[in-house]
Design a protein that fits this description.
single chain; about 220 residues; alpha/beta; eight-stranded parallel β-sheet; 8 strands
């Protein structure tokens, strides 16, 4: 049976190759290891193998396992990559270093309030629903640039990137290209796009971080 550490090494090798093929600088792409649904004892070997950036979908689940891991490994970086409810903004600001799922005014306002109250400012990405899927979080791509500007002007938030999850049954390339275009128009530098099945493609389209779960930890 192939373990998570072996799969992590393979993913890192693939990322490095994709960077070269896209004429990107070595190390231009950050690997976010998606550890949702996995327990601390399953995550720890991956940390010990050198991985430092992780993604979680739910605030409550992350609260149950990451404080102890961060005590043992203080240099970890934790990303929230699942939908954020406004009533969880306080906990999210306290726990996460990066929140990738800002997608509506209510969330922007709640985050601004908590950032001011806690004096802690996680990096923020706006999630864009590039496929206009009803069941998926994210702002309409036609409204994304204006929303980034409102986050800055109205809420005083420093938006540093965009994030998207293309429809699973479509070619992801056009969605990645759209996100890259919107990022340029919005004046943000970070692009969180690409998952286990398409991260090499995302790198070719300019991803600065890829969110890889099952290709490292195995099926859930």
């Amino acid at each position: 049976m192939i373990d998570a550490v072996t799969r992590l090494s393979a993913v890192k090798t693939n990322i490095a190759q994709a960077e070269r093929e896209a004429n990107r600088a070595a190390g231009a792409v950050t690997l976010v290891a998606v550890s949702k649904t996995f327990e601390a004892h399953e995550i720890r070997p991956v940390i010990e193998a050198g991985q430092r950036v992780f993604g979680e979908n739910r605030v409550q689940e992350a609260q149950g396992k990451w404080p102890a891991l961060r005590e043992a490994f203080p240099d970890l970086e934790l990303h929230l990559i699942g939908p954020l409810q406004s009533n969880k903004a306080k906990e999210a600001v306290a726990l996460f270093d990066v929140i990738e799922t800002v997608d509506r005014e209510k969330i922007a306002a709640a985050l601004a309030k908590e950032i001011a109250a806690q004096g802690k400012a996680p990096k923020l990405y706006v999630q864009v629903n590039t496929g206009l899927e009803d069941q998926k979080a994210g702002i309409d791509p036609r409204e994304a640039v204006a929303f980034v500007q409102r986050c800055r002007d109205v809420h005083g938030l420093a938006i540093e990137g965009l994030m998207a999850i293309p429809p699973f049954d479509e070619n992801p390339g056009p969605h990645f290209a759209l996100l890259e275009k919107l990022a340029r128009e919005a004046g943000v530098e970070k692009l969180s796009m690409g998952m286990s099945g398409d991260y090499e493609t995302a790198i070719a389209f300019g991803a600065t971080s890829v969110r890889v779960g099952s290709a490292i930890f195995g099926s859930r």
